[in-house]
User: Fold these one by one.
Assistant:
Number 1:
Amino acid sequence: MKPIYLLILAMAILAGCDQKPDDIAPATAPKVTEDKVILPLNSPQLASLVAELVPAPQATSVPFTGRLAWNDDATVRVFTPFAGIIRRLPVDVNQPVTNGQTLAEIQSGDFGQAQADAGKAQSDLDVAQKNFDRTQDLLEHGAAAKKDLEAAQNARDDARSEYQRATARLAIYGSTATAADSVFRLPSPLSGTLVERNVTPGQEVRPDQMLANIPQFTSPLFVVTDPTRLWVWLDVSEADLPVIHQDQAFTIHTKSYPDKNFKARVDWVGGALDPNTRTVRVRGVVDNAEGLLKAEQYVAVEMPSPDPLKILISAKAVFLRDGQYYVFLETDTGQYQRQAVKIGAERDGKVAILDGLKEGQLVVTDGCLLLQSLTDNATGS
C-alpha cells in the first residue's frame, strides 16, 4: 500500500508543476480601464468605498456676514439741552418707557434761568394787559388820548410775543412756565425700551459734551428703541450685487441659535461703492419679536441665488485631474465609472454640480481617490 501512496503524491506534484505562474490570478485583482474600475465582490477595497444617491436639484444661496444694529427708524439717542447735575434716574436699563416719560432729573441753572424768563414774561404780559385795559377805559371816558391807547396796545403785543417765545422754549423741552424749581426733567422722545444709559447720579452733563472727542462724553446719555425691530448691515462685493434687490427676503443664522432661522428683508441698497473696501452697503430689516437677537451681534446671512436649481453633493466626491473635475459613479455592485463634471460654489462641505450628474445616480463620496489611483497604476499615469 505504501508504494501506491507515494505514486499518487508524485503524480500530484508533477501536475502542479505543469501549471504556468501566469495562469494563477489573484481572486481580488481589479479590472481597470481609463475611465472604469471593476472590483471583484470579494475585494477588500470595497469596504473603503461609500456611495450616495445624487439628490434632487435645489435652490442655492449666497453667504454673507452681517452685523445687527438698532433700527434708527425706531431709535432715539438722547442728550441734554441744558448743563447741570444728574439728581435722579427714575428708569433703569431694559425697562419700557412711554413718550414724554422722565429719563433723568437734572438740576440746571440754565434751565432755571429759562423758567425765570418765562415767569417774568408772563408777569410783564399781565401788567401790559392791565395797562391796556385801563387806558382803553380812560379813552372811552375822554380822559386819555388815542395815542396813549396805541402805545399801551404796542406794549401789550410786545409782552405777549416775549411770553410766547419764552413759553415755547420751555414747551420744546416738555416744561411749562408754572414750574420754577430749576429741575429739568429730561423726557423720552418716543415710546420703547431704554436699552442704554451712560450717566450716574451726581454726574455733570452739558449740551456740548458730544462735541468732545472722548467716548464717555460723545456717547448719548440714553438710547431708547424698539428692540423687536432691528437692522442688519451687509458689505456686498461687486460680484455679488446681482443677487441683491429691493424687498428681497433672506435668512439669518446665529451661533447662539444654530438651528433657528430668522427672517429678514432688504430695504435699502447703497448707491455707490466704498472707495476703500470696494463694497456696497446693504441694509435689511429683521423681525426680532422673540427678542433673541442682539444689536452689534454678527450673524451669518443666506441670500437666495437667482440662478437655476443646482445639485449639491459632498465635496469629498469631487477631485481634480489635469484641470478637469471628476466624480466616480457606481453603475453596479463593484463597478465604477469616472464622470467629468462642472462644479459651482462650495459651502459647508457641499459643492454645486452645474453639469455632469443626474438625480438618482450613485456617486462615490468616500474612496474616489483610491479608484483614481487604481486607474493611474493601470494606465501608467
Number 2:
Amino acid sequence: MTKMDKFTTVNVSKKTQPVLLADALPALDPAVLDAASIRAAEEFVADGTPANTARSYASALRYWAAWYALRYGQPFGDGPLPAAVAMQFVLDHLQRQTKAGLAHELPPALDARLVELGAKAQPGPLAYATVGHRLAVLAKWHRLHGWDSPTDDHRLKTLLAKARKAQARRGVAVRKKTAAVAEPLQAMLATCTDGVRGVRDRALLLFAWSGGGRRRSEVVAIEVTDLRPLDATTWLYALGRTKTDTSGVRREKPLKGEAVLALQAWLDAAQLTEGPLFRRLHRGGRVGATALTGDQVARIVQRRARLAGLPGDWAAHSLRSGFVTEAGRQGVPLGEIMALTEHKGVATVMGYFQAGTLLNSRGADLLGDRPNSAGRALKTPT
C-alpha cells in the first residue's frame, strides 16, 4: 500500500473533527466567497497591481463601458459578454480595405459622442495594438469574475489574425520607440549642462541605461539606500518588486564607471542620504522630497532628445531598448543581457538584440573592400 492509499483510507473520527461553532460564527458556503472575502481578494489584486497597469486597465474598462452603452443601449458589467460583442468591437475600431476605400463600422455620431464623453481623444479608428490591449483587459475582467471570456472564441482569433495580416499588407507597421544606442545617448548626455537639472538628468539617463535598461517604474522606485558602493567606480543597486518579478526579493545589479560618477555628483548636489533617488525639482533648482513619476521620466528623455536635435519617437522605453540593442552591437551574450534587464521571455528581447547584432554582421558586408566587376574598390559614398 502506497502512502497515498494509506492517506485515502484514513478514518476521520468525531474526535479529530473540530467543535462546530455555528452558534458563535455563521458558517460559510464552501461553493462561494462571502462579501468580506470578495472585498479582501479585490484588495490583494489592487495592491499587487502596478500603478501604471491599474491606470491602463481602468482606462480600457471606462472605454468598454462607454462604447457598450452607446452601441447596445445597455449598462456594461451586468454579466459576461458574448463573442459577437468582442467581434463587433474589432469591426468598429479597425480599418479594412473596401472598394470605396478604408472603412470601419463605428457610426460617426457614436464616435463623436465617445470623444465628447472623453472616452476617446479624437474620432477615427484605433491602432491594432490598442484594440488588442482592450480585448486583453476584457478577458482579464471576465476571468476575475469567473466568467468565460469572449476573447477565447476561435472566430474572434481568426478575425484578429486576418486583420493583422491585412494591416501589414497595407504597410501599417507596429510603432516602436526609437532605441537610444550609444551615439544618441551620448548626444543627450551632452545637453546636461543646465545646473542641478542637468546633474539629475545625466544621473538618471546613465542609471536607467547602464544599469541594465531599467523601466521607468523601476527608476522612480529606487531609493538612496538601495545603492551600495563597492569602490570608487563600482556600485551595486537593489531592485525590489518589478513588472516581471513580484516576489519582493531584492536583487542586486552592477553599476560601473561613468554611471557611478554621475550618481555621486547627483547625490552630492542634492545632498541626499535617504528617500527617493530621483526627485522633482522646484523653482530655482531646489530639490523636492517627492520622487519623479514615470511620465516625468519619459518627458526628461524626450526633452534631452529634443535639445540634442535627435529625430525619432523618444520615450523612457528608448533607454531600455537602446541598452539591449547596443549590447547586441557589442556582442554581449543574450543570457547576460536578460540577467540585467530581467526580461522573462526571449521573444520580447530578441528583436532589439538582433537589431544590434546585425549592424555588425559580417553577412551585411561580404564584399567589403573587394574590387567590383569593373575592377574598382567599393567605397562608401560621401
Number 3:
Amino acid sequence: MSLDNLKKNMILTPFNILYKFSPKKTLEILFRLKLGYPLNLHNPQTYNEKIQWIKLYDHNPLMPKCCDKYAVREYIENKGYGRLLNTLLWEGFHPEDIPFDALPQRFVIKVTHGSTFNIICTDKSRLDRQDTIKKCNKWLKAKFLPCYGEWFYGIEPPRIIIEEFLEGDSGMPLFDYKIFCFNGKPRMVYIDTWKNNEHTINAYDMELNRFKGVELGYPNDDTTAIEKPECWDEMVRIAADLSKDFLHVRVDFYYTHGKIVFGELTFTKGAGFGKIKPLEFDYKMGSWLELPLERASQ
C-alpha cells in the first residue's frame, strides 16, 4: 500500500468506524466534505446524490459478480456476448504461479477488484518479474474503504487475470468508450484519452456530440478528434441490453480493428464523490435516473 493510501486510510479510520453504526450518517458527512453541498436522500436530484442512494438501498445480487473483472465474464457469456470478451491468457490467485515464459511479448495484467491495479506490458523482455509479483501481492490484499459504502466490492475473491494486449487502429489511441446507462437507456458516453501521460476525458451525447465545458474529474481534451466507429449503433444496443438488470451502470468497451471488446461494468463512478463541473450537469445526469424511492422507507 502506498504512503498516500496509508495516509488516506488513517484519516478515514473514524468514518470506517462510524459506518458500522450509521452508513447513512457517514455518507452524509463525507458527501458534504467532498462536494460542498448537503446530501438529500429523501429527494435526491443530482447524479452524485443518486449514487449515494444506490449504495445504501440498491442491493442487487448481481452487482458483486459484475463488478469483478473475472466473475463478470460469466455474466457476459450468459447474456450471449461471449464473443466480446478479450482473450484470457491466464488467471489465478497466486502471482508466483504466473507462467511468464509462456506469455506472449505483450499482455495486460489485472487484479480483478480494483480500478487501477493494472500492468501493461509492451515488451516482456523488459518486465521486472519480481516487481510484478510484489505489486500483485500488494494489490490482492487491498481493501475498499468501508466508509465509501461500495458494499459489492471484495465479495468475489480477488484474483489475477492476464489478457491479450489491445491497441488502436493505425497508430491511433485505443479509445475506451464508457457508456452511462440509466434505467436501461444509454444517455451519455465519456471517452478517455492520454496525452503526454496526462489523463483526459470528454463527455458526449449518444450521437457523439461533445458536452463542451463539462468536466468529470479530469481535464478535457480539446485536440483529439473522436469519430463514430462503424459499430457504434451495435455498441450502444449491447450497452442497453447489459444495463437492463440494473438501475444504473456504466458499460465500458474498446474498439479495435473493427471489433468491439468488452471492458467492465461500473455501478458507482467515483463512489458518488467525484466533482462534476458545472454543477448543473450533475443535476442533468441526475435527471436521467429514476429511483424507486419507496425502498428507502422500507
Number 4:
Amino acid sequence: MGINLWAVLTATVASFVLGGLWYSKLLLGRVWRREAGIDEAEASNPIKVFGLAFVFTLISAAALSWLLGPYPNIIEGIRTGLVVGVGFVACSFGVNYQFSQKSGKLLSIDAGFHILQFLVMGIILSLWP
C-alpha cells in the first residue's frame, strides 16, 4: 500500500500553519506560555525546536496516512483523525498532565490543538489519497 508523499507533506505543512496560529499571541500563545511556565526570554534554539517538530509532524502525518489506507472517504478521514486526536493523543496527554500536575488549561490548549491537527490531517489525506 503506497502513501501519497505530497498529501503527507501538505498535511504536515497545514499542521504547522495551524500550530503557528493556535500558539500565536493572537489566539492561545500567551495563556499557553503562562500555563507551561515558559519565559520567552529564555527560548531555546528555534531551528532545533521547529526542525524536530516538523520531523515529528511528518512522521505523524505518514502514520495517519498509513492508518487510513488507500482511498479513504472524507467520513473515514474525519473519524480516524478524531479517534487519533482524542483517543490517543489527548488522552495520553491527559494521563501525563495528571501525573506532572499540569493545569487543565494547558491540557485543553495542547489537546485541543492535536485534536484539530489530526482532524485537518485526516481531511487532507482523505481528499488527496
